[in-house]
Amino acid sequence: MTDKTSDADKKITDEYNLRTLINNIDDPIWLVDADYIIIECNIAFGKWVHCFIGTTLTNGDHVLHNGQNKAYQEKFEMCYQLALSGRSFQTVEDMQVGKDTRYTSVTFKPVYENDKVVRVSCYARDITEQRKHLLKIEEQNTALREIAFIESHKVRGPVTTIMGLEQLFNHEDFTDPINKIIVEGISRTTKDLDLIVREVVLKSNAIDKT
């Protein structure tokens, strides 16, 4: 009798410790069976799902909220189906939290029993900062490509014009009337070039501020 009581107490203690452990993890963790019923989940999962459907789900609930939220169901139903078919994969989901967009990496892994998929274990991780950092780099790269285009195309035209006019300049007779026309042309082209340089500077400053 003592051994049975001891085993029962140990089981209760183990379950309590496991529950304490997963609920102290900030990342959502959950386990779903083949009927989309939540077998196990932590508090973080309930909070995470609440951002999608405005309702907290927990053990025993239908993970797709019984189809009550069409957008949420369509977003995740295929993921569970793929995992139940034996595929492990990762997806990135976005959600609107207030005025801020949060990004989450969600991993789905099939759980096998006797070579048959019977459950899906899932966990999610907030990757908002990494995502925003990548988006920032993409914006900077786009700006750099625009600057490179300006320098290789827009700048080339005025520079070529100035070089061409310089060759026509009469260095032997500065009083040559054509020289005045050439100088005026160089002046206009220089102003155009200055506008292009200003454009490059503005784009460069924009990169520094991001």
How much is the radius of gyration in Å? 33 Å
Number of helices: 6
Q: Please tell me the total number of domains.
A: 2
Outline the low-pLDDT stretches.
Answer: none
SSE order in H/E notation? HEEHHEEEHHH
- Please identify the top-level CATH class of the largest domain: Alpha Beta
Total beta strands: 5
Q: Key features?
A:
5-stranded antiparallel beta sheet; 20% strand; alpha+beta; 5 strands; 58% helix; rod-shaped; 210 residues
Describe this structure in words.
- With 210 residues, the chain is of the alpha+beta class.
- It has two domains: 2-126, PAS domain (Beta-Lactamase), CATH 3.30.450; 133-209.
- The chain contains six helices and five strands; from the N terminus they run H-E-E-H-H-E-E-E-H-H-H.
- The protein has helices at residues 2-23, 43-53, 70-84, 128-154, 156-168, 177-209; strands spanning 29-33, 38-41, 89-97, 100-113, 116-126.
- A five-stranded antiparallel beta sheet has the order 2-1-5-4-3, with helices on both faces.
- Strand 1 and strand 2 (38-41) form a beta hairpin.
- Helix 4 (128-154) packs antiparallel against helix 6 and helix 5 packs antiparallel against helix 6 (177-209).
- It is rod-shaped.
- It starts with a helix and ends with a helix.
Question: What is the element layout, followed by pairings?
Answer:
Layout: H1 2-23, E1 29-33, E2 38-41, H2 43-53, H3 70-84, E3 89-97, E4 100-113, E5 116-126, H4 128-154, H5 156-168, H6 177-209
Antiparallel strand pairs: 1-2, 1-5, 3-4, 4-5
Helix pairs in contact: 4-6, 5-6
